[in-house]
Specification:
Blueprint lengths: L1 H24 L3 E6 L13 H20 L5 E7 L6 H18 L1 H7 L3 H14 L6 E3 L3 H14 L10
Parallel strand pairs: 1-2, 2-3
Length: 164
């Protein structure tokens, strides 16, 4: 658990402060911290520590955005949604078919996105962002509702190409 806290909370705090100082010296810039599952208070068994750290990222980033307002540096945070990373693939294979069904296969099969597609969309939104304190969330409630509706029609499984 300490590794999660060290990376997801301490790392974000230290990295943000270093970046703010450096960007102020050069006259401005943008910082984006990555929140994720848990940033909205959603909890899931086995993911409590992780989700807690991601909730902290949002709180911290929002607070720093207010503190540095007008400095020439802007800060935002983002939630990339459900990204089918090598870690997700390995975890799914290790937990076995039955547990994977319980732990999120259905949701990943509808909403999972490749790291490449996720990165392209995040970069597009970050470049277009002109405000301080922006929260970029790729998997919004309307997008989820549309995803469920389309899944009922298409029955497309985004996980098949990954063998999980």
């Amino acid at each position: 658990m300490m590794g999660i806290i060290d990376v997801n909370i301490k790392g974000v705090i230290i990295g943000t402060h270093i970046a703010v100082n450096g960007l102020q010296q050069q006259g401005g810039g943008k910082i984006y911290n990555t929140a994720g599952m848990g940033e909205n208070g959603f909890t899931r068994p086995t993911m409590v520590s992780y989700g807690t750290t991601k909730r902290a990222v949002g709180y911290f980033s929002n607070g720093v955005a207010k503190e540095i307002e007008g400095s020439g540096v802007t800060i935002g945070w983002l939630n990339p949604g459900m990204v089918i990373t090598p870690m997700v693939i390995n975890d799914a294979k290790e937990m076995g078919e039955e547990r994977w069904k319980k732990e999120g296969r259905f949701m990943f099969s509808i909403f999972g996105s490749s790291p490449e597609a996720t990165g392209e969309e995040l970069v597009k939104r970050m470049v277009a962002d002109t405000k301080n304190g922006t929260f970029i969330k790729l998997l919004s409630t309307p997008k989820m509702l549309l995803g469920f509706a389309l899944h009922m029609i298409r029955k497309k499984d985004r996980l098949q190409p990954y063998g999980i």
